[in-house]
Amino acid sequence: MYASREDIGYDFGDDSKVGSKPIKPNPNIDGGWAWMIVLSSFLVHILIMGSQMALGVLNMEWLEEFNQSRGLTAWVSSLSMGITLIVGPFIGLFISMCGCRTTAIIGGILNALGWILSAYASNVHYLFLTFGVTAGIGSGMVYLPAVVMVGQYFQKRRALAQGLSTTGTGFGAFLMTALLKYLCTEFGWRNAMFIQGAVSLNLCVCGALMRPLSPKDLREKHVVRNDSEENRSKALSHSTETVKSNGVLGEEPEKKEEAANEEVLGSVQHIEIGGKSGSGRSMYGLRLFKTVSQLTLTVRKGFGLWYSSYFGAASLFTNRVFVAFIIWALFAYSSFVIPFIHLPEIVKQYNLSRQDNVFPLTSIIAIVHIFGKVILGIISDLPCISTWNVFLMANFTLVTCILTLPLMQTYIGLAVVCALIGFSSGYFSLMPVVTEDLVGTKHLANAYGIIICANGISALFGPPFAGWIYDITQKYDFSFYIAGLLYMVGIIFLLIQPCIQKKQSREKSTEEAQV
After folding, report:
1. Whether residue 350 is found in the same domain as residue 463
2. pLDDT at 207
């Protein structure tokens, strides 16, 4: 574990105190419209992640309607959840070119279209395309902007803000489960999906609330982060030749590109001014040319930022700690999803169905999960607490619970472990904060897109893998043991890489001192 924030090189402190040049606080950062962004993100989590956690209601209807195997039918839900996260890197490209607001509005329309088209499904394979792919991509186009916008609007209280917004997942699980049950009972599953599609159009409203920060606001926050990054580089050394993936080395090329863009637009404006005396048709052509030029430059700039984040000199993958974070994400999410999928069967095997019907274990996880996100967010925002240490402690607690859950054969024992799983999994609200501290606000969309893509792969293949292990062993014990051990491997990567970075930093400092 790390005793201080400087050990890992994160800027977890109050950034407004860093630097000699005083910066006037902006009302849009950590206050004002920032809380509307939290509300928007909260509603997005209810409508997207909450709906996905309630798909068990529709899954039973699909089994009865289409008479297909449980494994094949379950892929509809898995595709929807997996694709929502897996498309993250590509949604990052949309955000770079179009911005969070436009991306979210388009995603809301696409998500609603997926629900509505699924109401006319004639077989399970039709649902793969309409619900799994179409609604899944739409969900991803709204989910990532919702997380990124909270990161942009908050500096001091990022963990709390992310914690509050992501509690929508827990609330949504209850609300959407009750809503879908009622709609299916009263109107049938097809009409229920049609109505849910109409409800999902509210995602467009949530997207409209994602008002982009002005360039001045972004510059002020960027200055604050740059001041703190000077302290970060002393502890976590990336050589100036090897890139820090916060875009520092990419500033000069970007400045040159912006200058070239301004020159192009300036020449167009000059031609437009000179041609005012010309005919109306030529003026219309000039305006059209100017609009196309501006659009082309915006697309080029967005694609350039996206490309440089993944493949350029300032690639995110040159940050070894971030790469370790990706490896961790590949194993982490399935350890949270597997209990939700297989707990009902475990309860049935242990003859605990009567107690579980009174208060389901999955409900215990969901309820405590809500409180875990908020409490861990509040703790992480304390000046004397390292978010990185809170994140690691929560991970250690969760992996311990996953490994010990099969040993519990009483309802009380399972309930205690499930409560700990729910609370410790509240670290999900810290993931965007840790990601932003690693790569900076500028690359948050692309970096977090990679992280949720890894989570999506984990969610897509984790539960089927656990089911495959059960088919071989006829026990769920080994599913939890293997998932827990793989999860532990990911945590070890998180521990090793910062230690290596710290050692390399000390060796480099020693060499420079000797020279």
Report:
1. yes
2. 94
